[in-house]
């Protein structure tokens, strides 16, 4: 086994370095992975630029990366579900398995969750990384490593739609056409939504959303009032949406989600914005609009993999930029500037572990 373990380590705000680190030693229930694809998430950029993301704050150097796929290089003595050479998608959060939340099936709320690249837990943007075997999912032969890495954001979108109760024939409003908004749109369509409207402040993102299958788009400008936007949503959909999903976190989009949702409908809040917001709560209460938060995902990785493998959801177009591990700093700069949609870092040569067409 090569001793090269080039790793992307964030030492402090705006101080991201590539350096050699020791290859991890695995426990009996873990696997050692030769990493392949690692996507850059908005949270990665937040840590890089500010040293924090929401309530999670860096206090010591941290290895980056959590949207990832890799190839099994070594297995622990108790591992039965995987073999050396298996290509896997990595669900980045490993819970305690023993607390109330874990035992009742909501392990994403485990207070002792160890989540990649969330302080103080290291991530997986490295040549080699170890992970719990039961949170690695073997990829079918026709699924690419890029698709495996994209199961992470897709799981967020699926969780948002499941929390919103998206059903066949419903109209869905998605606020924000960034990567999470787009995968939420794809998940809503796969779950049967008949009309999907997506909003953003950038026309280029809306154009891309349209290519991916959005029925309608709204470019939100500073001049547009809330009332005008609510009326435009109703005009385009023919009625108020049964489900609205905010994938931005901005106060303006949260407000629009609550105002636009049909009475008796559901507003799902995905985006992490300011700790406190001013929102039209009384009107939402009077109209019995359910307001539901989501945090990451739970039991959705197998669903995401099934949807991708079956062709129900195509995430391949989301990857707009490709970089090698050695080009990590350049890749992060592109992500920071918001160029393209999803920036993918290839730890191994691109397509080295992909199906050969």
Automatic annotation (TrEMBL):
GO terms for biological process: sorbitol catabolic process. SUPFAM superfamilies: GroES-like (SSF50129), NAD(P)-binding Rossmann-fold domains (SSF51735). The lineage of its organism: Eukaryota, Metazoa, Ecdysozoa, Arthropoda, Hexapoda. Its cofactor is Zn(2+). Keywords: Metal-binding, NAD, Oxidoreductase, Zinc. GO terms for molecular function: L-iditol 2-dehydrogenase (NAD+) activity; zinc ion binding. The keyword NAD applies. It comes from Papilio xuthus (Asian swallowtail butterfly). It holds the Pfam family ADH_zinc_N. InterPro entries: ADH-like_C, ADH-like_N, ADH_Zn_CS, ER, GroES-like_sf, NAD(P)-bd_dom_sf, SDH-like. Belongs to the zinc-containing alcohol dehydrogenase family. This is Sorbitol dehydrogenase. The keyword Metal-binding applies. Residues 12-345 form the Enoyl reductase (ER) domain.
